[in-house]
Amino acid sequence: MKKWIIISAIIVVIGGVSGWFFLGKKDQAQSVAAVAQTTTVQKGNLEVAVSGSGSVTAITDQDITVENTILVVDSVSVASRDTVYKGETLITFNNGLVVKAPYAGEITEVNVESGNGATRGAILLRIEDEDGIISPITRGDNNTSDSLSGGSSLTVDTVSVKEGDVVEQGATLVTFTDGSILQTELAGTITSLSVANGDSVQGSAIVAHITNYSSLQTTISVDELDITKVQVGQLVTITASAFEDETFAGEVTKVANEGISSNGVSTFDVTVQITDPKSLKIGMSTEASITIESKEEALYVPVEAVYKSGDEKYVLALATSGDSTQSAKKVTVETGISNDTYVEITSGLAEGESIQIPIVQSSGNSSLGGMMMPNSGFQGGGGFPSGDFGGRNGGGSPSFGGGAPSGGRGGN
Questions:
Q1: Residue 46: inside a domain, yes or no?
Q2: Residues 158, 196: one domain?
Q3: For residue 201, which of 224, 217, 178, 221 has the smallest C-alpha distance?
Q4: Which residue, 174, 71, 182, is CA-closest to 122?
Q5: pTM (predicted TM-score)
């Protein structure tokens, strides 16, 4: 009898522990439940964009050296197809410098005329010798007096500008006693000037520095997964930390062919010319959003609303029965362009239709966020979207005619 009492007590204890364990597990399992929000299918302008940060720099920002001096052509003594003898005068400059034929031959091309300026090393004409070999004749080819090598120098005659001057393209900055002049190839502001009348300067000496403050650009870094989408000519929207409520238009002018690798990830520089810099200043930080693709009057939904099962994509649309109760039904859809936030619906839904967006929420009402799982099946209106829409960078968002989209998501 005592033996049976002990056995019964053991059975009761085991049963209690088992019940507590399974009930506890059930309660724990019920503490997290899948619920859903609702939103509606929106219509508007959908954009796909790649973004990055950078800073403002000047497009024109360069040193001007004595090597950039030019001589003005006084006369050209030959024309194309002329036959010349060795030592014959071909071109004479205003300062008296003469360019002569290095050998007998035929002139095949003349690139200058009276009044033109020629920089050191510029191709003046081409000549063909008796063996049929065509060679260029450049300024300084056979004139040691036109060379600044070997420690020779030029003497400044007149300085025509001062620091802070704004000059146009082709403006004369300095003239030298040998008759050569130094002009600027680009417009801008003279930010530094290092010569004065009577100075002697070497051939490699920096005479001035020019910066164009009205022609600005920004260079951003773009992830290697997105760089293939970026092309020269694409439109860009730019914001600057210094002007929070203002945007600036831009255009992609250069895409780097080589990336910069850091921690196993490569990025590529993209140069964007700012169309109208307004009050932007060199050095200001910027954020640039490059429009990769856009579509007007597109139907779209949040990316997490689209489920994927194999090759099929679908949403959970809400249907109202006769007794006013709502239920979710599976609706197959086709998709178009997408960004990190929204995906275009090209078939299967109409504007204003209500659909579900799954979330996972704990018993304490603290959201655990949209848990996206690839290739999830359709189980009682559940399952999770694949999350395979959109890129890694920026994404962008739709443009709305009348504010943010309505519905449970509030345009998020």
A1: no
A2: yes
A3: 178
A4: 71
A5: 0.59
Q: Is the model's pLDDT at 163 over the cut of 60? A: yes
On whether residue 40 sits in a domain, the answer given is: no
Number of residues written out for the chain? 412
79 C-beta neighbours (distance < 10 Å), count: 9
Q: How far apart are CA 327 and CA 320, in angstroms?
A: 7
- Whole-angstrom CA distances from 321 to 196, 259, 324, 353 are 91, 58, 5, 15
CB 282 within 8 A of CB 56: yes
Check whether residue 131 and residue 170 sit in a common domain. Answer: no
- Six-digit token string for 395: 């994404």
**SS3 for 14?**
helix
Spatial distance between the Cα atoms of 228 and 268, rounded to a whole number of angstroms: 10
Which domain, by its residues, includes 182?
62-66+152-211
Same structural domain, 82 and 123: yes
d(CA 195, CA 139): 25
Overall number of domains in the chain: 3
Q: How confident is the model at residue 283 (pLDDT cuts 50, 70, 90)?
A: very high
Tell me the CA end-to-end span of the chain in Å, nearest whole number.
71
% helix, strand, coil for the chain, step of 5: 10, 50, 40
Question: Is the confidence at residue 96, as pLDDT, over 70?
Answer: yes
Instruction: With a cut of 90, say whether residue 121 has pLDDT above it.
Output: no
